[in-house]
Write the structure tokens for this entry.
Amino acid sequence: MVDPITVEVIKSSSSYIAEEMGIVLRNSAYSPNIRDRMDHSCAILLENGELIAQAEHIPVHLGSMAVGVKNTISYLKRMALALEKGDIIVLNDPYIAGTHLNDVTLIKPLFHNGEIYGYVANKAHHVDVGGMVPGSISGNARELIQEGIVLPPLKIVRGGHLDENILNLILSNVRVPRYTRGDLKAQIAALNVGEKRLSDLIGKYGIETVIESWNRIIDYTANYLKEKIKEVPPGTYKAEDYMEGNDRLIAIRVSISIEPDSITVDFSDTDDQVDMPINAVYGVTVAATSYAIKAALDPDLPMNYGFFKVVSIKTREGTLVHPRKPAPVAAGNVETSQRIAETVLKALSNPLEDRIPAASHGSMNNVMVGGIHEGRGWAFYETIGGGMGARPDRDGVDGVHTHMTNTMNTPIEVIERECPVLFVEYSLRKDSGGPGKYRGGLGITRAFKILSDRATLSIATERVRLKPWGLKGGLDGASGRHYVIRANGEFIELKAKDTMELRRGDTVYINTPGGGGYGRPSLRDPKLVREDLLDEKISPEAASKYYGVNSL
């Protein structure tokens, strides 16, 4: 039996190897979305696809990684496609990989003495994978094929040699091939580094010791989580929340059953799938659910397959959270994932009221724009932060990404260098945080002007019709509002999911939601209200209306 100290060393080494893979990917990538925003994730898995270690990257990527790798292993067996040393698989089919088409997944088998002992894998959000619009996320998509090129598991590297035919197939179907080529090679480089570091680890400790340690880590996590469950009163807790469809609200309903040593999360009563791209494949549902439970019970809980020995996630196929192919899913990954996480947190706010915050802005606030400029294709994608929900003991954070996204801010200088746009405003939205004893975080205003003759804008957002909810008497945060002001002064209001053609001089305004408040506003310390007034986070009118404070 491996001693506990060695197990801990191998656990930490494995986690750092995943982190180093991410550093290599970021430093080698071409697109701002991966190089600057760090919209990528890396992980290590056992030979059966069970998650061993992951870097602290994107929650929606990482939670779905094991689902995607397990599905890929099954697909390869079904197709009798054998893996050999030096091979790398590429895929992005959401119904296999577990997220959406923009997230291109690469998987490399790890060999020792001719046998596969595990895999290194990464996902990276490519700025464009073809489809109806630049950026590939269109609210008008009605089937998967409209969202871009669909790649089943294919060998992009064979025996250590890049398959130029597969690479050229991919490059021929995207709008900015120089980004795609560079980003794919960065992903390959990251996997190669992971393989080398794990080979070194095995060389030091031996394959039997490493594998046994990995299995001990899984068992430790399962036992750790069982102890944490004891802090939650047994029972069944329910909640529902809504996605904003074109003409109606679509419900996500969850029932969480807490037993002495297990948790069952059931989404079977969720509304059926829809003919718009807010459907979330099962991998996304798993990712959002596991994130929310981990965040609520213990953020320091190690994340690996041991989690799923204790937590069971049930769905009904054909629903918004487990659609049937070929339903479109591009926004399900980025938007519905947010709502799944907050619905789970809302259900847990009853037994864990001292841990659960009010609703955050609840959207990744996706902006895609691109076209042809000076004879060359361009595409830009980013997600924009908003207000974090107020917490049981303090205000929410202003202008941040929350829950299922964990990306960086895209520097304005980088965007303006790469794309024909000019930013005209980047600020916090006054009065957007929900009033409460603790105020919700403020949303963001981000505005840019188009400098090319023509461009296509698409947005995929939420919380435009609905507001982020408050808790314990806290009031709702402000909803989002997005619009375009034409060069001639015409004002055009945008829907939550919208696509429109832009011309030179048009300016796009994205105003993201704030977070919900926590506790009754009348209980807020007047000193904090005056500080908010000085910082211009709230207006004098709001200070008077909600807090009864009439002056500094």
Remarks:
- Residues 371 and 404 are 29 Å apart (CA to CA).
- Residues 357-552 form one domain.
- The chain has a mean pLDDT of 95.
- The chain has twelve helices and 20 strands.
